[in-house]
Specification:
This protein has 654 residues and is of the alpha+beta class. The chain has a five-stranded mixed sheet with strand order 12-11-13-14-15. A zinc finger (CHC2-type) spans 43-67.
Length: 654
């Protein structure tokens, strides 16, 4: 219904948020300042001992620094009383002595209709419960007893039985004067396509009432007794009462138990929830035979910060768990996530509890893994990464997954954790690791490449990897990164080169990862993707500040040429180093002359790669084939020759 102008303002002026909240919490007198309306208390929405829940009575808002719950007067009543917005308004208006405006006739009509449907559903609950005690339900009772359910448990869960007839419930309800349109509207019967009387939706099934968070029966779930039935489990169709994508089995009791500190467990079916609750794990729910939806994830987070997904230990259960990841990734917030409890293969929670007891189930729940681990398992399990192409495919899939996360802070933390898992997989000889492939690229912030994590073995082995060359490399890396920071429009053009950039500094790697993420999502600020000190370090060297592409008035063309030159020089020099390293590895297979020639050619290649605008100030000697070699390179080359033990290889020194 619509409310007249000024009604809500008047209600707010008559109502104190601190007074309303004070009925649910104990104020911390040491932190609170009642005179200023600045009140603190333990949060009513999650279990805690410290007073992290803040109420600003003057502004009319509350916020929890622990679970991040926030809102105003009306949202607080909605959350704590499990009511809708208009019902919250009614509660507060009644307490404030205000008369509610006349309702919209259509809205009132809809509310009244839903109330009538709920009454019909309660009559159906009683009918099914009575039917379970009849002779026709002997097989159903035997089945339930075999599942370990006592008579008291059957009563607690209001389990019933739908008889094997076409109009059993229909005849019962119409005989009590229930209107036919209400029976059909509640989803308890279906119209006949052959012009006959409507027939019951549920026949020859064990019946489980489904109640909303307020305790109203809104639907049923039925388990077929006939093994040849087309559907083993059948839920009520969607009605004005029932939206299966926004409902959870055992919602109300689970919310109460979760509020008392129990772990919130999401199981697959009714019997799993019943078995968990009967075993003492009362905060258990099920998603009503469908894949978990976004609305259901929100319902779960309203009950608990980290619900535990405990689906069956078969392929279907694992697929369902993996689908939940894709649903939840874009919705992640600070402190709000999911954990996964993978059941033993072939078992569901009910099977495990009956076989090994409640303790075994509790142990699995306590050991539930965070969602990032299951995401990693999904992308890597059963796959072999014995080639660069396969590893690149893994990197791509991880980046695509992390890109779904909207929160930039969580996105960075996911990138960091996936980076760590990736290094552990490849650095420790993970599946399909090929010899001589070098170290893998690390996943940076946002799931992007952030450069190699450890120095390359080949580079360590090369005598040319003196500090001077390493320092020059870092300068070139800094120039490349600083140029791309200033000219981000060039990122798409150089993204492939940037991914291949073998950064030698952790801060450079952080900036590299951030730039790669911006290449895919340019809406973010660089400062949110990498630490400020990394950006400062990139721009700090004087050589960087005078680089052509970094100058304040540098055009895009100048920046493009500068980037192309720096990438080419780094690639050429590092390629020469690898050539020299390979020459050393191959020394046993070359004659003396061949070795000398190959090392000479490698040194020439490196010298050529190093030449720049400063080469006129360098001192050169003449090398093999008349090529000029910088004296520092000649010294390094001589040192390399000195390292080779010709006597050990059975050769004479040249």
């Amino acid at each position: 219904m619509s409310l007249p102008p000024g009604f809500m303002d008047e209600l707010r002026s008559r109502t104190s948020l601190a007074q309303v909240v004070g009925r649910k919490v104990m104020w911390d007198q040491r932190k609170s300042n009642q005179g200023k309306g600045d009140m603190w208390a333990p949060c009513p929405f999650h279990q805690e001992k410290s007073a992290s829940f803040h109420v600003d009575d003057r502004k009319g808002f509350y916020y929890c620094f622990g679970c991040h719950a926030k809102g105003d007067l009306f949202s607080f009543v909605q959350e704590t009383e499990n009511v809708g917005f208009m019902e919250a308004v009614e509660i507060l208006a009644r307490e404030a002595g205000m008369q509610m405006p006349a309702r919209d006739p259509k809205a009132q009509e809809k509310t009244d209709h839903r109330a009538k449907l709920a009454e019909v559903m309660e009559q159906a609950v009683q009918f099914f419960r009575l039917q379970l005690k009849t002779g026709g339900a002997a097989a159903a009772r035997e089945y339930l007893a075999g599942r370990g359910l006592s008579g008291a448990a059957l009563d607690r869960w209001e389990i019933g039985f739908a008889p094997d007839g076409w109009q059993g419930l229909w005849d019962h309800l119409t005989g009590k004067g229930v209107a036919e349109e209400l029976i059909l509207g509640a989803g308890l019967a279906k119209p006949s396509n052959q012009g006959k009387r409507p027939y019951d939706t549920f026949r020859n099934r064990i019946m489980f009432p489904i109640r909303d968070v307020r305790g109203r029966c809104i639907a049923f779930g039925g388990r077929a007794m006939d093994p040849n039935d087309n559907a083993k489990y059948l839920n009520s169709p969607e009605t004005d009462l029932f939206d299966k994508g926004r409902s959870l089995y055992n919602h109300g009791p689970a919310r109460e138990a979760a509020g008392k500190g129990q772990p919130l467990i999401v199981a697959e079916g009714y019997m799993d929830v019943i078995a968990l609750s009967e075993a003492g794990l009362a905060a258990s729910v099920a998603p009503l035979g469908t894949a978990v939806t976004e609305d259901q994830v929100r319902l779960l987070w309203r009950m608990h910060d980290e619900p535990v997904i405990a689906l069956d230990g078969d392929k279907a259960g694992l697929r369902a768990a993996l689908r939940v990841i894709d649903i939840a990734l874009p919705m992640l917030e600070a402190g709000k996530s999911l954990r996964f409890c993978l059941m033993p293969e072939g078992l569901d929670p009910d099977d495990l509890i009956r076989a090994e007891g409640a303790g075994a189930m509790r142990k699995l729940v306590e050991g539930a893994v965070p969602m990032v681990r299951l995401l990693w398992q999904r992308e890597t399990e059963g796959r072999v990464f014995d080639s660069p192409e396969r590893r690149a495919a893994l990197d791509l899939s991880l980046r695509e997954a992390v890109r779904k996360i909207a929160d930039p802070s969580i996105r960075r933390h996911y990138g960091d954790e996936l980076n760590r898992l990736r290094r552990a997989l490849f650095d420790q000889g993970g599946p399909g690791r090929a010899r001589g492939m070098g170290r893998p690229f690390a996943m940076g912030r946002g799931g992007r490449f952030a450069g190699p994590a450890t120095p390359m073995v080949e580079t360590k082995a090369s005598a040319l990897a003196a500090e001077g060359a390493a320092f020059e490399d870092r300068l070139r890396e800094a120039v490349i990164l600083a140029t791309l920071l200033r000219h981000r429009s060039l990122l798409p053009e150089f993204v492939a080169d940037l991914e291949r950039l073998d950064t030698t500094d952790p801060d450079h790697a952080a900036v590299q990862g951030a730039l790669l993420y911006l290449a895919g999502d340019g809406s973010l600020e660089i400062e949110t993707l990498c630490p400020p000190h990394a950006l400062e370090k990139v721009h700090a060297p004087a050589h960087v500040r005078i680089a052509p592409g970094v100058q304040p008035h540098a055009t895009e063309d100048v920046a493009r040429m500068s980037l192309a030159e720096e990438f080419a020089k780094l690639t050429a020099r590092r390629g020469a180093e690898r050539e020299i390293a390979e020459a050393i590895e191959d020394v046993e297979g070359l004659v003396d002359e061949g070795l000398t020639w190959r090392l000479g050619q490698a040194a020439e290649a490196r010298a050529a790669a190093e030449r720049s605008g400063q080469e006129d100030r360098a001192e050169y000697d003449t090398g093999p084939n008349g090529a000029r070699i910088r004296r520092e390179e000649k010294s390094a080359f001589s040192a390399l020759l000195d390292r080779i033990d010709f006597a050990k290889s059975g050769r004479r020194e040249p």
